[in-house]
Amino acid sequence: MLKIVKIGLGILTLISLTACSDQDRSTMRPAENNSNHITKSAEKNRTGHSLPTKHNYLKIVVGSPQNDYSGTEVSEVREKFGEPNEISKIDIAGTKRNVTQYSWSTLSPNTHASAITVQFLRNRTVGKAFVASVSDSATTVSANKVARIKSGAKYQSVLKQLGTPNGESVLGIGTPSHELTYLTDEKGHAVNLTFIDNKLVNKNTTKIK
Question: In the chain, fewer beta carbons within 10 Å around the N or the C end?
């Protein structure tokens, strides 16, 4: 069923979590396997495609008005990811348009995320996100190290200091932004860092469940 949701800056990850049903949430994390062996059938979704991976997520290009909305086409994303678990309509703050959001909550176990979402306008990608998950293999960053990151810090500089984030969201329309999520402990405490024009403009703590 198509759902209508309204979002603003920096909460694509929240939409990714709330847009999934309780049943979907139960499948977000891979089941434990004592042999750590994943069969080929387990790596396929219901349409026969390989399950979405972080590797393929990173290949998705986010378009914007500045680059004539030249993001990855919806057909290419569906070809790599298969059918989404949910499709919804989202209003983007600062624009008069709503976009179509595809959400995948059944992912490759090695993705280390609870969901992946991609937003489309004119059949082109204008936003994407992967939602951090708490697991034994999740990496963490010292809260003190994150605290030393000051407002105005450059995006690439923060990545160099903190490493690969546990989650992120990228939005190319409205107020184009990039949000990074870092877990600070194994209990799910985390910090969200929001960048506009490659500069840090907001830092807030959160809890990943």
Answer: N
